[in-house]
Design goal:
five-stranded mixed sheet, four-stranded mixed sheet, alpha+beta
Length: about 350
């Protein structure tokens, strides 16, 4: 008996040690046949399964949660006809809702559904032509409160992290790093958490008080121009690194303010070094000429893969960094609208 007890105990220990968290995604869609497909958050196909009598199932190990899409067609082009799924430990049920599908049954998916049920009526009200500006201001406050509550209530699942990610772009880098530590150990293992942490660390390197990072890109004539050459050019006192693109509406909205500031302060030592996230050289040059942007322009024409934008942790445009040429230090960032001229007046008047 003693020997049997030892064997059973060892077996139990081995079983507990080898236990791996698993997920199961199952659904029943009346009239559905063929296959169901699973895509990762980058919309790359990762799995598929047969549909039998409207029923289907995905399953696998889930040591690290992830976000994916479940679709009833291969080669996803219309993501409105899919289920937006947080793949995590447990059983996730897919059902039909409107033109698409809904995922339920696990913490992140249920939290996402509750969030959408709360936020969608506010979205509709905000976009309604009859909604007053005062009410829209109230909705803005409500949105912020709902999002903050959703994050604070879901620090142990991927939904909370993804909501935080949408806010982190506009947060101070150190504040982002401090908040990231609030998430559970399982969430800290995800690529999403590591990506946000990496981005925040990059932002710290280009925050106010840090030295500028040099880079070289081609000007419209194909000639390589370095940021260093412009910062060290005789007569230049402050250089604004401006990340923009011809296709960017908000960037075009900044043009009048930049033209005004350039006209007022260029002769006093202000220069702009514009790095474009365009892909089309024709569109880039056309925007420069049409808007009469008579400062220094460069681009690698790689859209969001712009190497300099990556160095400067740029995740939205317009985005800018003001450099003191005498020290090589960043003295201000994201000077939008009248703030640019106000800062230049402080420094150059």
């Amino acid at each position: 008996m003693k020997k049997l007890s030892v064997i059973l105990s060892v077996a139990a220990i081995l079983a507990s040690c080898s236990t791996t968290p698993t997920y199961k995604i199952r659904g029943y869609i009346e009239g559905l046949d063929g296959k169901m497909y699973m895509y990762d958050s980058g919309r790359m196909l990762v799995d598929s399964t047969d549909v039998v009598d409207g029923k289907f199932e995905f399953s696998g190990d889930c040591t690290v949660p992830m976000r994916c899409y479940i679709a009833d067609h291969c080669g996803v082009t219309n993501f409105n006809q899919t289920a937006y799924v947080y793949v995590e430990q447990g059983v996730i049920n897919i059902s039909k809702e409107g033109a698409g599908y809904i995922a339920q049954g696990t913490p992140a998916n249920d939290a996402y559904n509750r969030f959408m049920e709360t936020i969608e009526p506010l979205d509709d009200e905000y976009m309604n032509d009859s909604t007053t500006d005062a009410r829209r201001a109230e909705i803005d406050v409500l949105w912020d409160n709902i999002i903050n509550d959703a994050i604070d209530s879901n620090l142990d699942n991927l939904f909370g992290l993804m909501e935080f990610k949408s806010m982190a772009y506009n947060m101070d880098a150190q504040e982002t790093l401090d908040f990231l530590e609030k998430f559970s150990d399982d969430i800290k293992k995800t690529e999403e958490w590591k990506s946000i942490q990496d981005q925040a660390n990059k932002k710290i390197l280009v925050s106010v008080g840090k030295p500028y990072i040099d880079f070289t890109q081609d000007d419209p004539e194909g000639k390589p121009v370095s940021l260093k050459s412009v910062i060290e050019k005789e007569g230049n006192r402050y250089v604004l690194i401006d990340f923009w693109a011809s296709w960017c509406g908000p960037c075009m909205g900044e043009v009048p303010f930049m033209l005004e500031s350039y006209a007022a302060y260029h002769d006093k030592g202000f220069e702009i070094f514009g790095s474009s996230l365009d892909q089309s050289k024709e569109n880039w040059i056309e925007a420069i000429n049409d808007k009469k942007l008579d400062w220094v322009h460069v681009s690698d024409l790689k859209y969001w893969d712009n190497a300099a934008a990556e160095q400067y942790a740029v995740r939205s445009i317009p985005s800018n960094f003001l450099i003191d040429c005498s020290t090589g230090l960043i003295v201000a960032t994201n000077l939008r609208g009248t703030n640019l001229r106000a800062k230049l007046a402080e420094l150059l008047d």
